Amino acid sequence: MFNLSGPNQPIRRISLLRWKPIALLLLPLIAWTCQTRADEPEVPRPEPPKPADSNLLGGNVPSWLQRWSRVNQRGSTLVKSVFRDVIADARNGTVRITSNGKVTALGAIVSPRGFVLTKASEVQGDISCALPDGTRYPAIVVGVREDFDLAMLKISCQNLPTVQWSTEPEPAPGSWLATPGSESIPVAIGVVSASSRKIAPQRGVLGILLTPDELGPRVTHVVPGSGAAIADLRVGDIVVRVNQRTVKEAPELMAQLQHVKPGATVTLDILRANDPLQVIARLSAPGASTEARRTKYQQGLGRELSKRNAGFPAAIQHDSVLSPRDCGGPLVNLDGQVVGLNIASADRVTSYAIPTQKILPLLPQLMSGELAPADSHTRWKTFLSQASQLQNALTKQQQQLQQLQQVVASAESTGRAARASLNKDPDDSSAQSEFEKARQQYKQASTDITKLEAAVAQLRQKLAALPTTGFALASP
User: Fold this and answer.
1) Which parts of the chain sit beneath pLDDT 50?
2) Measured between alpha carbons, how far is 417 from 420 in angstroms, rounded to an integer?
3) Which of 49, 187, 343, 408 has the highest local Cβ count within 10 Å?
4) Angle subtended at Cα 343 by Cα 341 and Cα 349, rounded to the nearest 5 degrees
5) What is the pTM of this model?
6) How far is residue 342's CA from residue 32's CA, in Å, rounded to a whole number?
7) By the 8 A CB rule, do 240 and 270 touch?
8) Which of the listed CATH numbers 2.30.42.10, 3.40.190.10, 2.30.110.10, 3.30.70.270 matches domain 209-282?
9) What is the CATH number of domain 374-464?
């Protein structure tokens, strides 16, 4: 026992046994530290250049602590491997999506019949989905919800494993989350930063600064690389109309543009040195100009961010480090249940996920084909027509196959009866004729069956190659 009191204070005693657990935890660390330092040579060596943040701990961080920090970073393989069992089931329901030959997103299998949910703005052109076993299938878009940036794909595969949606309330801030991919360890792990909330949309940016003028708002600055710069708007130009609507002040012009989305065009009537001109400018995203790209780079510290990373009716904010190609897939809790679909990488510490509670009501309509985009709708109709034709041909050939099988059975029966008659009377000419006729029918029907079975197999293969297989011909 030790006296931890002052000379004039009552004696307060504490047992060494209360410190034993802490000592047991600290002794291995102290021993490892001593061994690490003992292993280092005593001869001074020149230190390699240190990164700019090496002085965060006073510029004298022990090498053993640096090594420990690198190994135990959240994004390290060692740390992510702890979540291997957590994502095991969800990984089986996750696909890797390729657009025009480039990997662009992840997707979640939401139906055994080949429906895959993903991020809409990352998939376009020729789309294919790779299952965890590496098998790749072509896909078409059969539904889009632009407000949530969700797209439903259809692949020609049946009996697929699906993700398991969480039935619990959405995870609270501080809850651990994991993002499964195509590997056995998660793509990223993180914690919930903020509960589900509306994420304000991005507005289209024209890229000009204005000042009042008698004739209308006058341009005082054009942002390099912006839609205004590409449209050749210049300092001194006076904007008099936007999309045929007269504007006399800068707030009026801004009001005309505030609901225009990035990528849309506006027609501007301007005065340049009192000469009327008309230009068409395409509004860019907030991160498209040179100056905005610099800000965006600083926000992501060099990490690529999603093209669309705002404007969602509801999204969970978490701090998993995701790239755009890692969005579109499921986000799971520690029970392996899907609590949302990763929808955007917003900055270096912010990712968004559409919560499960918002996704589930949307699935039936997304799978129905009612929300298919125009270009995809045409392809979808073509695929449906081809599938219907192939299905009809397959049905006819299967009916012919059944008829031939009946012919074979009848020929076998007739042949057995004729053989029985010949066994009794070998000279029975009628029985001989019946037997020969049955033998020829059996031979011809067997040959036709072999050809027809090959044709049926070929039709089934063509039918399976269509992304709509199981979509129009059966319910989800």
Assistant:
1) 1-25, 27, 36-40, 42-58, 71, 290-291, 297-298, 300-301, 469-476
2) 5
3) 343
4) 110
5) 0.60
6) 41
7) yes
8) 2.30.42.10
9) 1.10.287
